[in-house]
Amino acid sequence: MNIGGDTLQSSSKNQAVNHHSAVKTNSSIDASGYTYVHEHLHIDLSGVKGSLDCRLNQYDLIVDELHHLYTLGVRNIVEMTNRYMGRNPAFMLNLMRDTRINIIASTGYYKQPFFPPRFNELSVQAIANDMIAEIEIGIDGTKLKAGIIAEIGSSLGQITEDEKKVFAAAARAHLATGCPISTHTTLSTMGREQLALLAGFGVPPEHIAIGHCDLRDNLDTIIPLLEAGAWVQFDTIGKNNYYPDSGRIAMLQKITQCGLLDRVMLSQDITRRSHLKHNGGNGFDYLLTVFVPMLLDAGFSQVQIDQMLRNNPARFFQHSP
């Protein structure tokens, strides 16, 4: 296992891509297959978190896992890493070339501890302009364009003033481009407040996905979000140290009984080297090879599973640029 060591990108398949004509570079969804709506393929939070495990950049291991996902029917991955989280557009373009999986890149700012120096000097419009440029022109001089404003986040039990500024900028960027918004809630807190904030800035709920809603018993938040017309992500599947998958399934059963499954989307939020299968983790296929059989055993139909993994994400992105 190679959790600590960087995988060298010296082979021809790992060198920076110079020509991307055969690679999708926008937010289009391949609706023929499944979509993971909240993942990280290249992320580096090691500085803030003080652990090399939080630098996910092992190219060959990720390629192997994405090849397997493709055989399982996955065609799209929404990559939530934004500019101050260790985003790497060349890495993503290479992955698309080498795996045939469409990757939708993100623009935005994460949450308070991860904002850049002098963030408080940036105006709301300046932040929005950065997002708009990455959506319309490209990321870091590449042809890769952001297809979602994400993951914009809030702190545990609060939305700080700086975080509110990001939400305001995200709303302006959405209104200028039509790009959907996906959020980070810390331990499933502040989801309803996030929706209220974005709605107050003029963003229609159908363009908002509230993330990490499955880290605790959370139906008192989830049901009102869905009833308001927003999308909900069960996107930490397999992270049983936070909350058991059995609890996630129980909440999904209640949502189904309420007739609200048509705005639920699924993912795993892999962020660490130790999450990769080669390094002893669940791997990216856990959602399909472990959680989906659990859903079937709990009485969910294949139609309902396809709805959450294929149809709902396609609908969420259907109005994106």
CATH class: Alpha Beta
Q: Helical element count? A: 10
Biggest sheet statistics: 8 strands, parallel
Question: Over all CA atoms, what is the radius of gyration?
Answer: 18 Å
Total domain modules: 1
Shape summary: globular
CATH superfamily: Metal-dependent hydrolases
The number of E-state strands comes to: 10
User: Strands of the largest sheet, in order across it?
Assistant: 1-4-5-6-7-8-9-10
What structural class is derived from the secondary structure elements? alpha/beta
Helix content: 25-40%
- Provide mean pLDDT, rounded: 92
Short description, anyone?
This protein is of the alpha/beta class.
Topology:
Layout: E1 34-39, E2 43-44, H1 46-49, E3 55-56, H2 59-71, E4 74-79, H3 89-99, E5 102-107, H4 124-136, E6 146-153, H5 161-177, E7 181-184, H6 191-200, E8 208-210, H7 219-227, E9 231-234, H8 245-257, E10 264-266, H9 286-297, H10 302-316
Parallel strand pairs: 1-4, 4-5, 5-6, 6-7, 7-8, 8-9, 9-10
Antiparallel strand pairs: 2-3
Helix pairs in contact: 2-3, 4-5
Features:
two-stranded antiparallel ribbon; globular; TIM Barrel; alpha/beta; 36% helix; eight-stranded parallel beta sheet
Question: How would you describe the overall organization of this protein?
Answer:
With 321 residues, this protein is an alpha/beta fold. It has one domain: TIM Barrel (Alpha-Beta Barrel). It is built from ten helices and ten strands. The protein has an eight-stranded parallel sheet. Strands 2-3 form a two-stranded antiparallel sheet. β6 (146-153), α5 (161-177) and β7 (181-184) form a beta-alpha-beta unit. α2 crosses α3 and α4 crosses α5. The protein starts with 33 loop residues before the first strand and ends in a 5-residue tail after the last helix.
